[in-house]
Every structure is written in structure tokens, then in C-alpha cells.
Automatic annotation (TrEMBL):
Residues 4-237 form the ABC transporter domain. The lineage of its organism: Archaea, Methanobacteriati, Methanobacteriota, Stenosarchaea group, Halobacteria. It comes from the Archaea. This is ABC-type D-xylose/L-arabinose transporter. It is found in: Cell membrane.
Amino acid sequence: MATLTLESLRKEFDGGQIVAVDDLSLEVADGEFVTVVGPSGCGKSTTLRMVAGLERPTAGRISIGDEDVTDVHARDRDVAMVFQNYALYPHKTVEQNMAFGLRMSTDLSKDERRRRVRETAEMMDIEELLDQQPAELSGGQKQRVALGRAIVREPDVFLFDEPLSNLDAKLRTTMRTEIQRLQNELDITAVYVTHDQEEAMTMGDRIVILNDGELQQSGAPKSVYRNPRNRFVGGFVGSPSMNFLAVGVFTDAGRTTLVDEAGTFEYDVTDQRLLDALQGHDEVTVGIRPESVTVVDAGTSGAIPATVEVVEPVGADNYLHLDIGDDFIARVDAAVEPEPGEEVLVDVPSSAIHLFDAETGESLL
Ligand code: ATP
């Protein structure tokens, strides 16, 4: 295993008309599992393809360990890639598929190759499939084989390009756990690309969020969730998405209040952390996660009145759509079941209030 370093990586297409990746720097430590997430077209696959050597960077440098591999051919890089569509050879057996990478990249004896394939197949629980052909396998089995083929090579770096997207929801959860187990056992250095923020949050030691080819934030999933650097990250991480409200900042007789244009949201700011962040701002964007909102009893001081528009049950929770701002969602316990049209009072702890610059979207906290 080894460290992977990307320095100021840039990729242009169509003679510079499209900038798919813009000044991306990232270091993946030895044994670190980094997930890269972002909306469609943000440059995830292009980044991965550059690391694999399938795409040549327009500028910047890629190193694996101490070696600069920017100009090294794909087949000479010690990386293994696992694709969404499995990329298995259809006319080879599972065993031959798994052994193929070994034959290409090492000079092991036939017996040693066979031993390593068997050992990996056992670890992946696919020994009984070794003589079968890909067409005979289910999607989940194919992905296990593709993973096994990558693992058997013992590469310096693993690259995963949305490997679970073609699997149904249940299998996806199983495979997620499986990949995490392998990660714990083998301590692999990996970059795992997905458009699914939940997958990225649960699987990564570290999550990297891209938008428009640019790195937005990188950090431990919990820390990114708690302290999004900007509005984009706040909205992208977490489900349902963070609520945003454009508010004016009013100070009168030593009292600071945040009020939205419609006057449906009025919040008294007493927390010094928020007061400091609001200094010098007339307008800001407030961010509130749905799960930070609670429905409180009448008479609770500082609570915000709201009318319930829709109650959406999702198992253990209810999503309450409230008439605050455009579409304000509160995620509450399923036992909290107001009727549509009902007036409720909601509260948000001051520690759960996020503040963003109204123009740049940068966090003010
Ligand atoms: P998705 O989740 O949809 O796969 P992505 O984040 O992986 O998206 P990329 O595939 O890396 O995004 O694409 C980034 C940008 O570069 C997009 O605007 C895309 O259209 C463009 N792009 C990617 N490959 C090429 C290419 N070969 N030629 C021209 N433009 C390309």
C-alpha cells in the first residue's frame, strides 16, 4: 500500500471549453479510505480516471508513494479499479477473470497464482463460483468477483467508480458492509467515487466533496456534517437536505433577530457564537438541518410558529413539510403526527443553526 498524492490536478476537454477538474489537490494516506462525492458532472470519474492513467491531466501531478506517475502508462501503475459495470471478461471463468490481473502484472508461478486466487475467493465467499462464467452470476456475485480480481493483485491503490450503483438497495447495503470489512482487514488505500452522499458518509474515513470540478471540502464525515464550509456542502450532505432561509439581521435595543422576507421565520439570537458571526451582516442565509427541528409545546419561549402542509411518514420518522420559507422540512419521530393544516410550534437549538454569507455562500461560523 502507499500514499496517493494529487497536486493541482486539472483536466480540460474540448480545447478548454470544459474544465472537468480544476486545481484539485488531495493526499490519501497509506491505508486511508477516501470517498469522493458530488453531483453528476462534478468531475468525480475524470479524477479517478486520471489516477488510473486512463485520462491524461492537462496540468498537475499524481504520485503514488514517492513515484511521480503522471506520465506512467495505466498498465504500469500499481492501481486496481472496480467499475460500476463490473468489466469482467465474458468468456473467461471467474477463476480466469481473477487470475488475469495477476498474470499481467506479476511473474508468479502458476501454482502461486492459483493459491492466491483461491485464498481471495474464500475471503470474498465466492469459491463455489470459480468455474462459472460471468453470464451465470447475479449482479452482486459479479461485483464480488470484480472486487476479488482487484484484491488478488494487492495493488498500491484501489479505485472504486460507483461500484454499487447497479445493485438493488438491499444488496447495496450488504456490499457496503462487505467493502468496509475488507477495508478493515486489508487496510487498503482507496478512493471511492459515488454520487450517493449517504454511501460516502458511511464508508469513508474521509469524505471529499466536489462541485463543478472544484474541491469544496474534505474531512471526517462527522466533521463535514457538523461544520459545512459553505452552503453547497451544507445542502449536499445529510438527508433530507438542510433547509435554507434568506433572512435579514435586525438589531434593536440590544436584541438581534433574524427574520425572513415573508415574516414566517423569526428567530431571536442569544448565542454569542452566532452574534459574533453576524457582525457586519445585514442579510445572511440560515441553514437548519431537518433533524435539528423539534415540535414543542405551546408557550415554549422563542419557538417558531408554523403550519403543517404535508406529513410524510418514512418508517421511524415523519417528515413534516412546514410553511416556513420555500419548503421547510422537519424530521421528527413518527410518534409526532400533526394533521395537515395544523398550527405547530417548532424549536431549533442555537448550536444547530448554520449561517452562510448571503452572496458567497461561505459559512460564517
Ligand atoms: P457522473 O456522476 O454523472 O458520472 P462525474 O462527476 O463523474 O459525473 P465526469 O464524468 O468526471 O463527472 O465529468 C465532468 C465533466 O467533464 C462533465 O461536464 C462531462 O460532461 C465532462 N467530460 C467528461 N469526459 C469527457 C470527454 N471525454 N469529453 C468531453 N467532456 C467530458
